[in-house]
Amino acid sequence: MKYVFATFEKTGTLRYISHLDLQRAFTRLLLRSKLPIRFSEGFNPHPKLMFAQPLSLFQESVCEVAEFRFDDASPSEKETLARLQAVAPDGMRFVKVEFSEKKLPPCKAASYELTFETTLSASEMETLFAHEMPVLKKTKTQEKTVDIAPLITKKRFEQTEHGVQLHCVLPCGNEYLNPTYIEQFLGERVTDMRVLRTKLFF
To answer: Residue 35 in 3-state DSSP?
Structure first.
């Protein structure tokens, strides 16, 4: 049995589908590809499928990774990539396929490109991010105010025609920071935030 890591882009109109919808679409894609996918057992068999890091609604990415399994008899990485791309919907482009004997390791962090529509300048935005950034963070059991400033690393601000662009790295795993908390902190200082995930770190 082989583990298959498929790296793909999720952009354009696919930013409007949820992670659950993506799982369903990917399952149908695997079935249409006719690849030798390993299925679960039981009354309702389905492809054994997981994603490195779920992507929130309205967010785009050029670095998503899906893990599924092949039986020992399998096509090459090149053929697998071609067969996946042949049945991919608009907005999904497969970039790379890798085989492994081991499962995908946990995702530790991700880099993002955040584009803000705002009247603030890049230097004003940088000043804001240099101080405490309290937000109300919700978990399954509680709500608490958290300073997210220490969680935002490798910050680089750029002035754009319509506002400011921030390149940064945010943690995943137990300390996962969704970019929407940054938008929550900025509040009415921004009228829109476009999110593009650019790299996953394992």
So the answer is: coil
If 0-12 CB within 10 Å is exposed, 13-18 middle and 19+ buried, where does residue 106 land? exposed
Task: Return the DSSP state at 193.
Answer: E
Domain ranges for the chain: 2-100, 109-201
Fold of 109-201: TATA-Binding Protein (3.30.310)
Residue range 2-100 forms a domain whose CATH class is alpha beta
- Quote the pTM value: 0.93
Helix (H, G, I), strand (E, B) or coil at 189: helix
Q: Extract the tokens encoding 73.
A: 């008899």
Work out the angle between the directed axes of helices 77-86 and 19-33 (0-180°, nearest 10): 110
Check if the beta carbon of residue 167 is closer than 8 Å to that of residue 152.
no
Looking at every residue in the chain, the average pLDDT score rounds to 94
User: H-type helices in the chain, by residue range?
Assistant: 19-33, 77-86, 122-129, 180-186
Name the DSSP class of 131: S
Is the Cα dihedral 119, 123, 124, 128 positive or negative?
A: positive
Q: Are strands 49-51 and 59-70 parallel, antiparallel or unpaired?
A: antiparallel
Q: For position 181, what pLDDT does the model report?
A: 97
With tokens 């929130």, the residue in question is 56
CA geometry: angle at 70 spanning 69 and 71, to 5°? Answer: 130
Report whether pLDDT(73) > 90: no
